[in-house]
Structure formats: structure tokens, C-alpha cells
Amino acid sequence: MNLVRVVAAIPEAMLILALPPLLLNIAVKIKAWFAGRVGPPWLQPYYELYKLLNKGAVYSKTTTWVFRAGPIVNLAALLTAATLVPVLSPDSLLGFPGDVILLAYLFALGRMFTVLAAMDTGSSFEGMGASREVTFGTMSEPAFFLSLIVLAIATTSLQLSQMVGPHLYEVWHTVGPAMLLVVGALMIVLLTESCRVPVDDPATHLELTMIHEVMVLDHSGPDLAYITYGAALKFLLLGSIMLHAALPHPEWPLWVDAPLRFIELAALAALVGVIESSMARLRLNRVPLLLAAATVLAALAAVLTLTGSMT
Amino acid sequence: MSAQMATNAVLVLVILLNLGMLAVSRLASGVRLFALQSLLLAFLPVAEEMLEGEPLGLHALLIGGGTIAIKVVLVPYVLLRIIRTGEIHREVEPFIGFAASVFFGALLVVGSFAVASRLPLPTPPVSKLIVPVALSTVVLGLLTLVSRLKAITQVLGFLVLENGVFILGLLLLKQTPLLVELGILLDLFVGVFIMAIVVYHIRREFDHMDAHLLDTPKES
Q: Residue A81: which domain range?
């Protein structure tokens, strides 16, 4: 780790913090263009966050400290996770060997507190949302873990920045088809975890289509801002993991690498917007099939890399 | 090296198409997936000859052409025609549900990889994937055959099973005489032809295509 890298880490961290709402707005813009509208201004999500942060929060009398802690713990877990994921540069800010396990548990911790906060309201409606979130979570997590296992086997490393780093460039040459399966699985996981269209529709407030929205109905003010920002950050993190696995860069200088990654992230957000504009949400009972498909893709990739039958 | 990569990619796609056939409920989509799988397989004999750096032989071209003619064009055409006239478009209640059969199918794929690694081969194969993919195609075909109700899907399972035998035959492309392979293709065609007639008769007699009702014959 040279001096340039250490100095570059500070603006990089600020960029990682600033990027997420913009990325999701790209998806919103694309959807608006498909519908023939102009869409919100580019900085709209930041105005909304600012507005929410300046509001007061309303708490129901039935809620306890769990309800107040939910959004904060969720955001804290995701911010910690952000230090472990390589986003713009090939290095993560605080990576260490084995950090991938911490990453998995941080995502799980955030999810657990969101769900607990939803159940703490005592509303049966939010309980339903929590139940759905957990159901789909238990199905998308195996796919995510199996994908990470394949990456770990292929690169013989347990550090996320190594697992999706320049090593992967050679891995694609030897076990390309298996990597393609992993990327497919990670894409489905990304769409599920960030509540995008084939699984959940972020634009709706209809009772029967909501999964994630249902759980956060009772949150207001700064809490809602934390949750919205956390969802965007989660999209950025999972999206970067997928992009780094899908398009490994050889060791290019940072001033080529980082802007290119930014363009790729924007393209990914645009792709999500195109998917949302061109297809309908899946029926609730068809979603498990999609997630089973993701798990099977990742499992197949694991078998292919483990048996070494590609060479 | 790139032909090797392409062969591997095709074989992985073949497994995915197998699992896809277990997941779809529309009969017509299942038939189309089968046609796509056969199309991919038709290119394999040609790719194999190219991989070994030999001039394209008549043998490989005939096998590829015969596969396209029968399994990509003729058989799917016959099956789609039956589906269209039979007014039955979906597998409604399979013995094993769709998500469950995909999971079970994935287990079978893992099992075939485990078995294939223990099978000694007389000649080194073009790609190490051929044996496991052939085995998994055969067992997934069998799974389709036993877990679905409609006669059409059962025909489809039989066809997938034959595709597995075809992949295994690629190993012995040099050694197998052309006559044997063409014989298999002819058998397949005759088999599907007979099944088509049977399906037609089942439908005319009983107004549906549920094959499991044939298990318990009763006097009328």
C-alpha cells in the first residue's frame, strides 16, 4: 500500500458516501425516459434526504427502543460493510483476510434489525412485510454465499478485494462459463436485496406488491432518511461486488480505473432502470423459483470450479 | 483453446437448459428449450473435429445436420402442433413442484459430477465436462419423465434423455460407425411419431392428456 493509495482513500470514501442516491436516481431517470417523461432533477434524492433529516420523527406509543435502533443499526452495518467492499478502486478501504465473512454477517445484522423494528410496531401489516423479507432473504443468502465461495475457490483468497481483484482476470480465461453463472446469480441477488423489479417494486404503495416498503411504513423523518440512504448504499455495495466479479480490470493506474468503475456503476443502474421499464414484477409465488434459480446457478458454478472440469 | 472454451460453455448451457425445462410450466416453452438444447448439441461434433485440428469430416457434418433436421425442426414441430390442437398448454399439478424439482435436479447434477469423476475412460475426452454433462442430462430427463403428468412432458423427458446419450456418443465419435448414430436418430423419430399418435388417442378418448390415469385401468 503506497502513499498515493492512502491519500486517495479519503476522497474515495467521500465519493462512496455521496454516490448511492445518485445511482438510484439514474434508474429512476431511465424509467422516466421510457415513459416519455423528463424525470426528477439529478440532485432530487439529496434534497429529499435533506428534507427528511430536518423533520422531526413521530414514534408510536407501542414501540420500544428496538424501533428507534432499527434504522440506525441498519445504516451503521451498511456503512461498516462499505469499508470492506472495493467500489471505485481495486482495494477496499479496510480490507483484511476473512473480511468476506464479516461482510455477510453485517448484511444479515442490518436485515435483522430492520425486521425487528418492523415487528416492534405491533402492526400485523408490517409483520407480513417482515415475514416476506425474511422468506426471500433465506433464499437469496445461499445464492450470495455460494457465489462468494466460488470466487474464494477460484482466487484462493478470503479477502473480498482479492476475490474480485485483478486475479480474476486469469480466472475468467480458465473457468469462464462458471464465472458467467456466478455473475448471473449475483445479479439476481442484487435485484432481490435492493428490492428492484422482478422481486419487489420500489415505486408502489399497493399493499399486495410491497415487501420492503411495508416494513418501513411507520418510520418517519431522519429514520426514513437513514433507511432510504441505506437501501441505496446496499445497492451500491452489491452492485460493485457484481461488477468487480463480472468485469475484472487488470492492474491499471487509479486515474483510469476509478472513473471506469464509476461509468460501469452508472451503466448497471441504467440496466436496472431498463429491466424495471421492460418487465413486470413477478407473482409473489414465482419469486422463490427465481431465487432457487440463482442458488442453482451458483451451486453449479461451485461444482464446476471444485471438480476442476473446465480445463 | 477458444474452441475448447466454446465447447465448455455449450455444455454448461446444456445443463442450464435442462434445469430450465424442469422449471417452466408452459408445455410450449419446454419444447422450445429442448429445440435450443438440440441446436447447441448439433454444433458439438463439428467443434470436436475442429478442436483436434482435423479437416471437417462427412461424419461430423452428417451427425450435426441430422440432429438439426430431426431434433431441432421435425420433433419440436410435431410436439408444438399437438400442443396447439390439444388445447392443453400448461403442466398444472406435477408430482414434484417446480422449485422442488429444480432443487432436486441440481442435486442430481452434483451427483453426476461426483460419479463422473470416478469413471475411467479408455480415451481422454475432448472436454472433462462431457461425461458429467451427459450423465446429468440423462438423469434430469428421467426426472422429467417420472415427475410430470402430461404425456407431452413425458415425451420431452424421453427426448432429453436421448440428448444425454448423444452427448456421451460424442466421446466415441471416431469409433462409432455412422450407421449406429443414424439408427439412434431414426429410432428417436419413430418413437416420437408413435408417442404423438398415442397422445392423440389418449386425448380423443379421455379429453385430456394425463398419463397417470392409465396406471389404473378399469372396466367400462
A: 11-307
Q: A92-98 contacts: CB < 8 A, separation 24 or more?
A: A92/A160, A92/A161, A93/A9, A93/A12, A93/A13, A95/A159, A95/A160, A95/A161, A95/A162, A96/A159, A97/A157, A97/A158, A97/A159, A98/A158, A98/A159
Q: Do B102 and A300 touch (CB under 8 A)?
A: no
CA distance A147 to A299: 8
Cα distance between residue B91 and residue B145, in whole Å: 13
Residues whose CB is less than 8 angstroms from the CB of residue B87 and which lie 6 or more positions away in sequence, other chains included: none
C-alpha cell of B58?
462427412
Q: Would you list the DSSP string of B23-86?
A: H--BHHHHHHHHHHHHHHHHHHHHHHHHHTT-PPPHHHHHHHHHHIIIIIIIHHHHHHHHHHHH
Residues of B with CB under 8 A from a CB of A: 5, 8-9, 12-13, 15-16, 19, 23, 98-99, 102-103, 105-106, 109-110, 113, 117, 127-129, 132
Share of chain A above pLDDT 70, in %: 96
Looking at chain B, which residue has its C-alpha nearest residue A286? B99
Q: How confident is the model at residue A159 (pLDDT cuts 50, 70, 90)?
A: confident
Cross-chain Cβ contact A176/B9 below 8 Å: yes
Does residue A5 fall inside a structural domain? no
CB pairs under 8 A between A and B: 59
Residues in chain A with CB shorter than 8 Å from the CB of B9 are 176-177, 180
What stretch of H or E contains A1? none
- CB-CB under 8 Å, B8 with A177: yes
Other CB atoms within 10 Å distance of the CB of residue B2: 7
Chain A residues touching residue B3 (CB < 8 angstroms): none
**Interface TM-score (ipTM) > 0.85:** no
**Cβ-defined contact of B103 to A176 (cutoff 8 Å):** no
Interchain contact, B128 vs A310, CB within 8 Å: yes
Instruction: Return phi, psi of residue A199, to 5°.
Output: -105, -50
B211 or A155: whose pLDDT is higher?
A: A155
Tell me the nearest-neighbour CA distance from B218 into chain A, angstroms.
38
Position B195 scores a pLDDT of 74
Is there a domain that residue A146 lies in?
Answer: yes
Please state the rounded mean pLDDT for residues B185-209: 70
| In-domain check, residue A258 | yes
Binary contact (B19, A180; C-beta < 8 A): no
Query: Rounded to 5 degrees, what angle do the CA atoms B60, B61, B66 make?
Result: 100
Q: For chain A, list residues whose CB is within 8 angstroms of any CB belonging to chain B.
A: 176-178, 180-181, 288-289, 292-293, 295-297, 299-300, 303-304, 307-311
Confidence of residue B174 (pLDDT cuts 50, 70, 90): low
* A193 occurs within a structural domain: yes
Q: What is the DSSP letter of A99?
A: H
> In this predicted structure, what is the pLDDT of residue B176?
66
